[in-house]
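Protein modeling request. Please complete all fields; requests missing the sequence field cannot be processed.
Requester role: graduate student
Desired output: 3D structure, token encoding
Chains: 1
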Amino acid sequence: MSLTSRRVFVKGLRVEAAIGIYDHEHGRTQPLIIDAVFDLGLHAIHGLKDTLNYELVGQIAREFIDRGHIKLVETLAEDMARTLVALPHVRRVEVSISKPEALADADQAGVCVVYQND
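Delivered output (118 residues):
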């Protein structure tokens, strides 16, 4: 028997962001829900230094959000994914960001991007 995959995830991270292209989205924040799934290497894990610290997902999201108004959720997802895939031990990352208030008739609308190290 052998280990074939190791995934770390953060699901349902809630943040408030100034985001959107429409006039009614300017000058206010709105909720976002962020999910991230990481494929890590198959090396031995003996401590936090050998894996991914979950807290980094929230820290990185807030760093981008704190820079000011973001036009598109796609921009935030791609910026986050490019930063997260560069972290140690990360081979691939999938970042999904949902805007629960985007459509009146839907629970959520959003985007999912995948970045992988070559």
